[in-house]
Amino acid sequence: MKKLKLFDFVSMTLLTLVTVVFVFPFYWVITGSFKTRLDSLKLPPIWFINNPTLESWETLFKQPTLQWLFNSIFISVVTMILVCAVSATAGYVLAKKRFKGSKVLFSMFVFAMALPKQVVLVPLVKQISFMGFHNTLWAVILPAVGWPFGIFLMKQFSETVPTELLEAAKIDGCSELKTFIEIVLPIVKPGIAALAIFTFISSWNDYFLQLIMLNTRKNLTLQLGLATLQGEFATDYGVLMAGASLAAIPIIVIFIAFQKSFTQGITIGAVKG
Amino acid sequence: MSPRLFLKFKGAYMSKKDNPIMSWYKKLSISQRQTVTAYLFLLPALIFFFTFVVTPILSGLFTSLFDYTTKKFEFIGFGNYVKLFSNTIFLKSLKNTVKLVVISVPIIVLFSLFASVVLYQKNAVVRSVFRGIFYLPVVTGTVAVVVVWKWMFDPYNGVLNYVLMKANLISEQIQWLGDKRFAMWAIIIILITTSVGQPIILYIAALGNLDTSQIEAAKIDGANEWQVFRHIKWPGIMPTTLYVVVITTINTFQCFSLIQLLTSGGPNYNTSTIMYLVYETAFKSPYRFGYANAMGVVLAIIIGLFSLIQFKLFQSDTE
Predict the structure, then answer these.
(1) Domain ranges (residues) in chain A
(2) For residues B270 and B178, what is the distance between their CA atoms, to the nearest angstrom?
(3) What value of ipTM does the predicted structure carry?
(4) Backbone angles phi, psi at B68, to 5 degrees
(5) pLDDT tens digits along B32-81
(6) What is the span of the domain harbouring residue B24?
(7) Residue A205: which of B3, B38, B141 has the nearest Cβ?
(8) CATH number given to A57-272
(9) In chain A, which among 55-114 make CB contacts under 8 A with chain B?
(10) Do B223 and B132 lie in a common domain?
(11) Residue A271 dihedral angles phi and psi, to the nearest 5°
(12) Which of A164, B1, B91, B93 maximizes the CB count within 10 A of its CB?
């Protein structure tokens, strides 16, 4: 028993030490954004804020930052809504209906998920330009909706809907659509919540897709804008830190607020499935 | 449109007895009706899936057989594939990719497992604080995380060289990201911090779901902590381990943003991965699309093989 306590103590100390590496970037970004330009370059580093200033934030907002913020929000919100709608209906049917081709379809979804997204990089860009969406926000939204992860997740959640309930609804003469909206949706609501947060966070941070699809300055997202600023303000760390804070804070707030739902979302497919 | 309003509309529409679609539907057998309804529900998903996933996959496979640039589109069979395996930059990137996977995946999985075993029996607050912290870099986003690491690794203004020089461990500034001895390791470190978040969440959940009565019984029978872990917990979380290993491997194979933002594959392609090379080949002059697609296909095959091997290995271990 003593040995166990010691192991636990050492491990907890170790883990606590390691967390510094995880928290520090976040801390540094936020404090850095309020430092003067000189302070942010000083060595030894100034660990706390000496002369708080908003000059970096002012420089940041001289860029089309508000437009970028809007683009990021628009992309994430629309992707989230579409993914939830598309996945909830598809997941329900795959879990609860017996029909020709269901097995084949489901294996196709799973197979596609195992394929690296980026293999389809060039054809996807071509497809998007062919459809006339290149360099519009839809170029980032639509491919993300095609990604079948949400369907997979919602199938797992829909398995929990009791079949007897669906049969009872049918006997009562409830239409398919009504059954879905009034019986299935309320039961899978936690699944939709989890999927919504998961999708919001991943499309907010999907730098790769944004990079290959968007290129004019006013169409950038916060992530892309920040990457561009890294080239323009190479060592003006204050501006970069302000940009990084703006890109990170909204999403961290959302994550903390919905941590429980989120955790449940990324757990259910893997642990119970 | 609100669901209720929609139902009303639908009701009005469906009530017309002479509606040709309705009368066709009524003639179907029950199982046929099931199929029709199912596909109606699936329709939006299928449209997106076929347009933005299936079509690009097929067209990627197809165009990988062409000498395809902005000017040309010429069938060359497996020409691109043959060229790939004599291309030193591709082979270097392939080696880097495998190295990245082989080094970081075990570290990520073992660290996640260790952290979860320590944390899962702690009280809810401690557990969720740590879980949140380990997930923080994922949420913060690669671009923002890179801003900080770039500063740390900066040879002249960065903290790492400063500390090492103060401690007299090095005598001159090291170009962490520009020196081929260090660049890959710098990337691996950041990659690890941005990758353990999800596995930890999964492991904590899996350990929490284990049957406690079995563990209690083993303890009463005198099994020590290690035996309990080895013979009860470890087999119990095996499906999660398989999932974590496969997902982490797939993600690591696709490591791109970190590399593009930190080193652009440099110095001299020493940190270039296949994913980065696909991007460079397709989006920088001379825009060789067919060639890039062939690289993508090779990457997909390699990932497929790795996943298959992992499935086989872990499956035999579960039995």
Answers:
(1) 57-272
(2) 10
(3) 0.87
(4) -125, 110
(5) 888 888 899 999 999 999 999 888 888 888 888 888 887 888 788 888 88
(6) 14-63
(7) B141
(8) 1.10.3720.10
(9) 82, 85-87, 89-90, 92-94, 97-102, 105, 108-109, 112, 114
(10) yes
(11) -80, -45
(12) B93
